[in-house]
């Protein structure tokens, strides 16, 4: 695992089970509707890759890149679009695919931005959710795992761009960020 990680929080099989469960819920809810999956770069890359393949329905994909954290571990509340969607989402059933919701600041900004583009529907699927997310009024329909308030990396999640390619989710050893 290496000296920079403290422990494994969610292993590969747990992640696969969580993704399968989310896909089954989404499949059931979107029966008869074509989905547009909007992935939030870069963290949601792994969730998008696995979730989209676990769905049994037609789905298209688009991506947005926004910045809120810089290289640190605290949300700044300042959100900037680094890459916008390629296409118009008006009239489409949009499902935002997120890696993690922490303070919820990033997501609430993103949702109001997307809502102003008049999609037919707008829902959120996040792999992970931290306890602070409960403080914000966001309706997140699909949640993979509620996790403790620790900084996690792996399966798309980074610390200063490292650890994204880990196939599991682990907690960071304190010496890495303190
Ligand atoms: P907020 O606080 O706005 O944060 O909900 C959401 C974004 O912050 C990043 N984030 C993390 N990234 N490990 C990470 O690698 C974490 O534990 C963590 N918590 C928040 C992430 O980019 C997410 O989209
Ligand atoms: Mg990040």
UniProtKB/TrEMBL annotation:
Keywords: Cytoplasm, Glycosyltransferase, Magnesium, Metal-binding, Nucleotide-binding, Purine salvage, Transferase. The gene is hpt. One of its GO terms (molecular function) is magnesium ion binding. GO terms for biological process: GMP salvage; guanine salvage; hypoxanthine metabolic process; IMP salvage; purine ribonucleoside salvage. This is Hypoxanthine phosphoribosyltransferase. It is found in: Cytoplasm. Its EC number is 2.4.2.8. It catalyses: IMP + diphosphate = hypoxanthine + 5-phospho-alpha-D-ribose 1-diphosphate; GMP + diphosphate = guanine + 5-phospho-alpha-D-ribose 1-diphosphate. Pfam families: Pribosyltran. Belongs to the purine/pyrimidine phosphoribosyltransferase family. Pathway: Purine metabolism; IMP biosynthesis via salvage pathway; IMP from hypoxanthine: step 1/1; Purine metabolism; GMP biosynthesis via salvage pathway; GMP from guanine: step 1/1. InterPro entries: HGPRT, Hxn_phspho_trans, PRTase-like, PRTase_dom. Its cofactor is Mg(2+). The keyword ATP-binding does not apply. It is an enzyme of class 2 (transferase). GO terms for cellular component: cytosol. The lineage of its organism: Bacteria, Bacillati, Actinomycetota, Actinomycetes, Catenulisporales. Residues 13-159 form the Phosphoribosyltransferase domain. It comes from the Bacteria.
């Amino acid at each position: 695992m290496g000296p920079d990680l403290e422990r494994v929080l969610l292993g590969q099989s747990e992640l696969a089970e969580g993704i399968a469960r989310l896909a089954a819920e989404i499949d059931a809810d979107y029966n008869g509707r074509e989905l547009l999956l909007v992935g939030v770069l870069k963290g949601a890359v792994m969730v998008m890759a696995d979730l989209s393949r676990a769905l049994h329905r037609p789905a298209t994909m688009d991506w947005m890149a926004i910045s809120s954290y810089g290289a640190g571990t605290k949300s700044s509340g300042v959100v900037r679009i680094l890459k916008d969607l390629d296409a118009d989402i008006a009239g489409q059933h949009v499902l935002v695919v997120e890696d993690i919701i922490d303070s919820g600041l990033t997501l609430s900004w993103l949702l109001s931005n997307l809502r102003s583009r008049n999609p037919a529907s707008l829902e959120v699927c996040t792999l992970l959710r931290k306890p602070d997310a409960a403080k914000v009024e966001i309706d997140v329909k699909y949640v993979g795992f509620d996790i403790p308030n620790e900084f996690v990396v792996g399966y798309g999640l980074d610390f200063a761009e490292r650890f994204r390619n880990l196939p599991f989710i682990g907690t960071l050893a304190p010496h890495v960020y303190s």
